[in-house]
Write a structure and sequence with these properties.
The protein is of the alpha+beta class and about 290 residues long. It is built from nine helices and ten strands. α1 packs parallel to α6 and α3 packs across α6.
Length: about 290
């Protein structure tokens, strides 16, 4: 799933390639992709695109007086093409969900792999009209997001810290992969209750949030859209690396189930050497 660093890199890429261009056509190709119908997609045609904004994992492109907002969800992606095929695409064929054609040639496709179609596109007057944007918590890389603001979010939270970091209503833009990386860097168990952090642990976790995301944004800066997925994977130390040695201590990275996915962690670095109970195994033994 694209998270804050990759979406920020896509925002920069669109700023460079899309700003000032005129939209010729917008072609919806998957029934599930469009979440709004008024204003229609055709209202974007003939209008000039402005500077793209990012809201958590959402991208919002101002086009004329409207905004084209997208959330790439778990398996979505944006693919820029300097030259689009002359033949119009056929709806329902392959991963293509929506195509934006620009005057003078080129444009971009929104694609989604797999069978769970969650990629979402909205046409709105204001990005805050999108429910997912309206409920977002603060951006973790914003100047106003200081250590005290972070501590206030943890206070009273009786949930496990892994779930808190992933909750877009608490902090915008962090998903499964970077929450694993943040917790590994902070040397914190993903199952630790958020409200149980002391002052030193809170500071260490806050610095891990800022440093992990900031470094990932820097790595992705200037990387072409088509190479961002590979760049993300190459920078991950524990997420997606179950069975491999931890780059910090050499212990074996473990995986356990969490909510609708899995998480990876290092027992030596994060849980005092004790493996976490895996509910997937527990269910099989019942």
């Amino acid at each position: 799933m694209p998270e804050l660093p990759e979406v920020e890199a896509l925002r920069e890429y669109l700023d460079e390639h899309l700003t000032g261009r005129v939209v010729e056509r917008v072609l919806p190709l998957a029934v599930s992709v469009l979440k709004t119908y008024d204003p229609p997609l055709t209202a974007l045609e003939g209008q000039s695109a402005g500077a793209t904004a990012r809201y958590g994992k959402f991208l919002a492109v101002p086009i004329g007086e409207l905004h084209l907002v997208t959330h790439l969800a778990r398996a979505g992606w944006l693919r820029w093409q300097d030259t689009l095929p002359a033949q119009p695409p056929r709806p329902g064929k392959g991963p293509l969900a929506l195509r934006v054609v620009l005057e003078g040639g080129g444009g971009f496709d929104l694609t989604e792999a797999g069978t769970q179609k969650r990629l979402a596109v909205y046409v709105v007057h204001d990005p805050q009209d999108v429910p997912g944007i309206a409920r977002l918590g603060p951006d973790p890389l914003a100047e106003a997001f200081d250590r005290d603001a972070f501590a206030a979010l943890l206070a009273g939270e009786r949930r496990q810290i892994k779930g808190v970091l992933r909750d877009q209503g608490v902090i915008a833009g962090i998903g499964n992969a970077y929450s694993d990386e943040i917790l590994h860097r902070a040397k914190v168990s993903p199952f630790k209750l958020a409200a149980s952090f002391d002052e030193e642990q809170t500071t260490r976790l806050y610095e891990a949030v800022r440093d992990t995301l900031g470094e990932a944004v820097e790595r992705a800066h200037g990387v072409a859209a088509g190479r961002l997925k590979a760049e993300k994977k190459s920078g991950l130390r524990v997420h997606g690396r179950a069975g491999e040695p931890c780059p910090v201590c050499g212990d074996t990275v473990r995986s356990v189930s969490f909510a609708d996915s899995s998480l990876e962690y290092c027992p030596t670095c994060q849980t005092g050497g004790k493996p976490l109970a895996d509910r997937r195994l527990s269910r099989l033994l019942k």
